[in-house]
Inverse folding.
């Protein structure tokens, strides 16, 4: 016998279910208790850097868009600083929250984020990571939230040097992590839960 | 310089135990079949992107945000159903309380009906019940809220599947890597062992971890029963070696 390691186990995840919007974006469902939905706007005033729009849709393995998903994104400001209590490298843009939450469009499921192009952030070993946004997807049928990252197609040099992208064995799947500039100037980032274009999801 | 008297620093997050957490593909829960990734997840150590998190201040909370009995009710009215208090602590895997954690919760009413336009169960809506609330944990990680006990309800999966009574929770910790959504069940509910969504959990221990016991010590006599539900988020590694390069 030995002493016991007294660590606790993480609470098991369960699906967000079909009504996650009641809990997380209640105004979107017509329940006005809080006066507004959290994460609707990522800007509280004029922001530094390049303002961008990211749109996308989450598709299931049959190609059907999800209309009951919730997508959250988390990112640094244009200088690469996080609006987080544990950011110690400098003072982030006070008008940028870094966090967005979208219930998707009621009829199409398309999500939209009005944000800024993120600055680069170092990897733990000091190398710089390519500019990216962390995304987290939950929905009915998803037993544990899916983490992925949004990188930018128009950052080829930074992407090529990125410590994570460069170690992915199946380099032909990297395009699933790239937001693409559209004719209207916005970026498109679709998520495929399954199938030949399955998005790379992270165990992070 | 020696590090001998330097206290350990918080490092990256402890890896998520994928053998404990449910798998993505769980065929008895039919919706998972076409919504489950099939490729292996890409594992790497957490970076600043996952070790940071948005901050939610107590000042954003309204007085009734943690009172589902009254936060949607007309003046002088209250939601119908068994009055309960749900309370507990948000802890990390190291057993420390997590202060400042935003908890959002949502649930069906006492008859098992959600206030949602896609909800089709014939049970009645309660005009005084919205079904959502939120709170932020105190310095010791504790939280509480007041609600009515939700009812079980049928759902389209098998021909006659019923969800046990449950409350959904969304939790933010101090790092985006800790982000978690889960459900709380109630001690003694016979539907727990029949439910395909509970069934995605891999062990009785995991089911128990989501099942809140009746807590008579926390009841309010002649007012509300109480259930205790602790939530555990991922913990951070402690390390002396703050300058050590963490290569892959």
């Amino acid at each position: 016998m030995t002493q016991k390691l007294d660590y606790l186990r993480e609470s098991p995840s369960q699906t967000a279910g079909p009504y996650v919007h009641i809990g997380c974006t209640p105004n979107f469902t017509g329940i006005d208790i809080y006066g507004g939905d959290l994460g609707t706007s990522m800007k509280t005033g004029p922001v530094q850097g390049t303002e961008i729009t990211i749109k996308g849709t989450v598709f299931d393995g049959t190609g059907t868009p999800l209309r009951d998903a919730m997508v959250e994104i988390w990112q640094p400001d244009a200088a690469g600083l996080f609006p987080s209590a544990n950011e110690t490298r400098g003072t982030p843009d006070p008008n940028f929250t870094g966090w967005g939450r979208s219930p998707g469009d009621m009829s199409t499921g398309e999500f939209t984020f009005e944000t800024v192009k993120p600055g680069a952030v170092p990897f733990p070993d000091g190398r710089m990571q390519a500019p990216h946004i962390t995304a987290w997807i939950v929905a009915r049928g998803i037993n544990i939230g899916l983490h992925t990252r949004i990188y930018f197609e128009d950052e080829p040099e930074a992407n090529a040097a990125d410590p994570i992208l460069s170690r992915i064995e199946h380099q032909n799947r990297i395009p699933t992590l790239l937001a693409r500039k559209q004719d209207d100037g916005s970026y498109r980032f679709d998520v495929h839960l399954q199938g030949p274009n399955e998005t790379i999801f992270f165990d992070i | 310089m020696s590090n001998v008297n330097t206290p350990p620093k918080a490092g990256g997050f402890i890896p998520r135990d994928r053998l404990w957490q449910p798998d993505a593909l769980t065929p008895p829960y039919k919706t998972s079949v076409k919504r489950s990734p099939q490729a292996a997840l890409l594992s790497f150590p957490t970076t600043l992107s996952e070790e940071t998190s948005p901050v939610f201040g107590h000042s954003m909370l309204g007085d009734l945000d943690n009172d589902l009995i009254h936060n949607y009710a007309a003046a002088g009215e209250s939601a119908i159903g068994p009055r309960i208090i749900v309370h507990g602590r948000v802890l990390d895997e190291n057993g420390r309380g997590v202060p400042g954690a935003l908890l959002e919760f949502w649930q069906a009413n006492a008859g098992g009906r959600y206030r949602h336009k896609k909800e089709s169960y014939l049970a009645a809506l309660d005009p005084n019940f919205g079904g959502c609330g939120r709170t932020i944990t105190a310095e010791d990680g504790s939280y509480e809220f007041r609600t009515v006990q939700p009812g079980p309800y049928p759902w389209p999966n098998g021909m006659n599947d019923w969800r046990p009574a449950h409350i959904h929770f969304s939790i933010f910790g101090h790092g985006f890597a800790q982000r978690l959504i889960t459900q709380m069940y109630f001690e003694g509910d016979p539907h727990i062992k029949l439910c395909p969504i509970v069934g995605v959990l891999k062990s009785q221990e995991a089911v128990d971890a989501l099942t809140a016991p009746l807590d008579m010590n926390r009841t309010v006599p002649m007012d509300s029963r109480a259930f205790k539900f602790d939530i555990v988020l991922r913990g951070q590694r402690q390390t002396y070696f703050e300058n050590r390069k963490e290569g892959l």
In short: The first strand of chain A starts at residue 51 and ends at 56.
